[in-house]
Design brief:
- There is one protein chain.
- The strands form two sheets. Strands 3, 4, 5, 6, 7, 8, 9, 10, 12 and 13 form a ten-stranded antiparallel beta sheet that branches. The protein has a three-stranded antiparallel beta sheet with strand order 2-1-11, with no helix packed on it.
- The chain has four helices and 13 strands.
- The chain has two domains: 45 residues, no CATH class; 228 residues, no CATH class.
- The chain is globular and about 55 Å long.
Length: 282
């Protein structure tokens, strides 16, 4: 039964990942506690967490085609379009570190991400995002979630710069307890280890080229994070020069899937489906 159940869950996860990402596919009215102290002090997220950040793109171009790497940082700035002030404010900073995202595309066309990049989320009381601590202050504090990039993409212009929305689909591979809950207060950490990884994470960004990045963005995000400390990443005077290499700013929304009805299925409906599947295969 265990294997049959996991096959059904995998099929459900694949269907969700391939379906159009409409509002109905997202978990709504979920709860988030930035310091991981539990559901009692968590606040409600109607649909999404807001984030802003920077990343460094390096392209290898052959004719009109290219392959790329993407490394970046971000900080959660609020939820549902509202900054974290007033009742929702806590003395905690939520940051993320994106490493080793790769993909391929066509200049003046579309691009896609390969599976395998890693996003790590941190909870930190230090409020040092944008500093020279670690990587731009994005990897300081307590790591409470790890996500793996499973897909996504967007479009670029003939200069290789992103144009419009970019999707990055992630899956939770680890989630500490005490941070994220469904609308009933059930801790989502109990679901992450047992689900197929495609089932859980999704984020979108709007990316735009930064012609004059700050010193810390250049040093911490490009040189340190993306290029292993190599000055100007070996590009010399061509540092931050599209389409070969460039810095982008990102802003977007971090959402969770599946919808509540799908979560409810995990409690009984999919078990029954798994049993029927096992019977049919017998």
């Amino acid at each position: 039964m265990h294997n049959a159940f996991k096959q059904v869950l995998a099929a459900a996860g694949f269907a969700l990942a391939c379906a159009p990402m409409s509002a109905s596919a997202f978990l709504q009215n979920w709860k988030f506690d930035p310091d991981g102290s539990g559901s009692a002090s968590a606040f409600t997220v109607n649909e999404y967490l807001d984030y802003i950040g920077n990343s460094y793109i390096q392209n290898s171009i052959s004719g009109s085609s290219f392959t790329f790497s993407d490394n970046g940082v971000f900080v959660v700035s609020g939820n549902d379009g509202t900054p974290w002030v007033g009742l929702n404010a806590k003395p905690v900073e939520i940051t993320g570190l994106l490493q080793n995202a790769t993909g391929s595309g066509t200049l003046g066309g579309s691009f896609t991400f390969n599976p395998g990049g890693t996003l790590t989320l941190y909870s930190h009381a230090g409020f040092d995002y944008g500093s020279t601590n670690g990587f731009f202050g994005a990897n300081n504090g307590t790591p409470f979630a790890t996500l793996s990039l499973v897909g996504g993409g967007g479009v670029v212009n003939t200069s290789g710069l992103p144009n419009g929305n970019i999707s990055m689909i992630f899956a939770f591979t680890n989630l500490s307890c005490g941070y994220a809950f469904d609308s009933l207060g059930n801790d989502l950490c109990t679901l992450v280890p047992s689900l197929p990884p495609i089932l859980f994470g999704f984020t979108t960004t709007n990316a735009s080229y930064v012609a004059n990045p700050s010193t810390n963005v250049k040093q911490e995000v490009a040189v340190e994070l993306s290029c292993g400390g190599v000055a100007n990443c070996g590009y010399g005077t061509s540092f931050n020069q599209p389409p070969t290499n460039f810095i982008v700013s990102n802003n977007g929304q971090f959402r969770l899937i599946p919808e509540p009805a799908t979560l409810a299925l995990l409690g009984g409906g999919l078990v029954a489906l798994g049993l029927r599947r096992r019977k049919a295969l017998a």
